[in-house]
């Protein structure tokens, strides 16, 4: 725009500062040590008669052409700086190695993970693997501090031109580059200006991002398979992702209809999927932009790419068409403020830092719009492309590219999902690829469909959710609690059943005492569909009394003697029990007119002593026992109003106990 600083070759200071992007990678290198996390491999398959000497000289030519490839990084007063080496000092050379068809993939993966020492060695290494007499693989690995994905294009083209010239015995005749990376570094600072000057580009864009990213989620809730480690290993893997020409055509059509780009439609789809998977309604996604803000940078190898944080608002259950429009508006605002480096935003916004995750976003989306060009090298069939490093910078990174037929028709969108193996299993990401595909097919078929209603599960997954995980049917004993207890008495009559305050009672003793009390309660009118309140302190007698009530067929209403008098009165009034079982010194205040049975009353003890101790028969009860009869009534706390009584049937209690026995494996003698 008007007044924009002009990029040109300039006089350099004694210590050339690093760019903002380089500064962050230098810092991470010092913090984490050398690693392959930020490697960018270029893999070139060469079939035919290869002139190895010409290739090696051409490699030196390329390193001489691009200063960024022969730069090491020193430190002065705690600050990094660039030191450009001479071509001879850089000592760039292609390392020759033997390989074969079985080992070549592993060999490529191994060297792609080379760990650079940025302080002492240039950020470029190259290996040539001889697979067969006329089949070789060249692997050139650039550290991200010296290049980016776009840089692979000029790097490969320059290597091809230099190789062709060296095969003819001459130096490459390319035009000198108008600027070098060090010139860009100085220009970047001039372009942004002083952030203390509110009229500067840097100040205006920083303020924009401060507002744009206010209250951004510190971390997305993703469907992890494992807890995030405190320190990320950056180990990664990739699952392939492909959309056919039909989906591609639909994406293009919707993009045209909404005045958006293919990238924006795919961003909306990824955000919708993540929201559906529980990430929330505010989805920040990181996306690289070329950052080559001047045409003088187009053919230069260097770290120019910038990362924009694009927030997607999925709130309010929007249709997919509406979501694409939201994405379009947000992205266009962001693209207008792409001069400020992401690294500077991290410094300014100062989010909560963690060595376990990336700041401001953990999911990235990239469209590869600068693929490595078809290369022409004399006497060789050349196939070039980016390689993998087995590393992951983010939790998830969706990397995509469009394909077209010779006539320009859409041929599909393909790429992969790179994922951090610290937190994800490969199988989870494979399913995620399927979920994204199905979601995209659904919303493209009907863009007015709310994204929340788009189906993402395949048939087997849907069946698992609706049926498999809900198949909780289990066979439970078709009996009531007293019968089950009596069966246990028959199996282990002398085993200890109750222990309380130094008192131990066997199953036989508990059962006989409960039988005597049950017969006494029946004489007082206890039976099925009636309630008996029990207001006893914790004791062996409490257990026996509850069992006795159940043996009569009645349901017990437990009352804590420490309850306030008004709560006890309310429960008794609401439940309307036929009697209250308690003891004389319980301290329980019972409303007048309440029938009470005092267990410690001598008359009660005498009456119990003459009652039969064997198990009750149905003809002794007012009605037979059955599983649908109430077993007890439990009252809520009343913290949100008056206490409410909940009636629990025998079959419900039996079901709970059967589940607990299966889950915790209590065993026969568990109490």
From TrEMBL:
GO biological process terms on file: amino acid activation for nonribosomal peptide biosynthetic process; lipid biosynthetic process; secondary metabolite biosynthetic process
PROSITE patterns in UniProt: AMP_BINDING
Domain Condensation: 16-464
Top-level lineage group: Bacteria
GO molecular function: catalytic activity; phosphopantetheine binding
Gene3D superfamilies in the record: 3.40.50.980, Chloramphenicol acetyltransferase-like domain (3.30.559.10), Nonribosomal peptide synthetase, condensation domain (3.30.559.30)
UniProt feature coiled coil, ranges: none
Residue span(s) of domain AMP-dependent synthetase/ligase: 485-660
InterPro entries per record: AMP-binding_CS, AMP-dep_synth/lig_dom, CAT-like_dom_sf, Condensation_dom
Cellular-component GO terms for this entry: cytosol
PANTHER family in the record: FATTY ACID SYNTHASE, NONRIBOSOMAL PEPTIDE SYNTHETASE
The protein's name in its UniProt record: Non-ribosomal peptide synthetase
Species name: Streptomyces griseofuscus
